[in-house]
Amino acid sequence: MRVFVTGATGFIGGAVTRELLAAGHQVLGLARSDAGAARLEAAGAEVYRGTIDEPDGLRAGAEAADGVIHTAFDHSDMGALSTAAEKDLTVVRALGEALEGTGKPLVTTYGTTALAPGSVVTEAFRPDLSRPRAAVEALTLRLAEKGVRSVSLRPSTVVHGHGTAGFVQLLGAVARQKGISAHPGDGSARWPAVHVDDAAVLYRLAIEKAPAASVLHAVGEEGVTARQIAEAIGQGLGLPVASVPPEQAAEHFGWLGTVFGLDVPASSTATRDLLGWRPSGPGLIEDIAAEPVFG
Question: What mean pLDDT comes out for the span 114-138?
Fold first, then answer.
């Protein structure tokens, strides 16, 4: 299968590219820079020059492939999530239109973060359409009615591995600055986590055989507690671990204060049953201990 991968030079998309190539697929990877193109060529992928800022330019890439995996997203300004989500919606619409009536697969990326705080989110959950990125998932699932084998894949709040761990790295920077590794309240809030290589396997399984209108969860661990994360950061940086009152979390952590205090566990039972996905990579705490992700 020849797969068009957006975000192919990024953390998740790069792992997806490696997984697809190792499984014998061809990859047509989106690259917006010469450096990104060189990395893709070195990995054995074909290069498609373009950017998500010009979604109409992605149509030819989708049309030239047997399927599309869309992992690219504009993370340049976390304060402008709504704007980035609108851009993502435009990209998915363009990709979907290119694949309409073909029966080809389109796998998009949504995420499990903060879908339903306080409860274990399953694949059956559908987010409120007022959420910035919910319209992307809704559009993805509707494309199944237009002859696209469309799939929404939700990675965990923390995708980690190979020295990278998203939010955890930002928490490490806060710990360094404050001199303590803190957690909000009693630290019982839970975050789902997955090793990036396991997530990549799920993307491959999705493009190969997931049914149309599927929602999949790339969740290796249902919920790692904020206290466990703070303790791992503290151990890695040699800093004491402390509790911060929830009402002071925003002051201590900045914009991360609201996120870190959310209890957002997620399940992947249905995904495992449907596709036989069995994550085998190290867990988040093990990964932090073996290869500190905060430098």
Answer: 85
For CA atoms 37, 207, 16, 51, give the dihedral sign: positive
Residues 6+ apart with CB under 8 A from 107: 67, 68, 69, 70, 150, 151, 152, 153, 203, 206, 207, 210
Residue that has been written with the tokens 């969860």 in this structure:
217
67 φ, ψ (degrees, to nearest 5): 180, 165
Our separate counts of H helices and E strands in the chain read: 12, 12
**Whether the Cβ atoms of residue 282 and residue 290 lie closer than 8 Å to each other:** yes
> Residue 28: in which H helix or E strand, if any?
strand 26-31
Instruction: Report whether pLDDT(174) > 70.
Output: yes
| Structural tokens at position 43 | 């990995």
DSSP state of 144: G
pTM score > 0.85 for this model?
Answer: yes
CA atoms within 13 A on the CB side of 288: 25
Query: What average pLDDT does the structure give for the chain?
Result: 93
From residue 195, how far is each of 20, 82, 182, 245 by CA, in Å? 16, 27, 24, 30
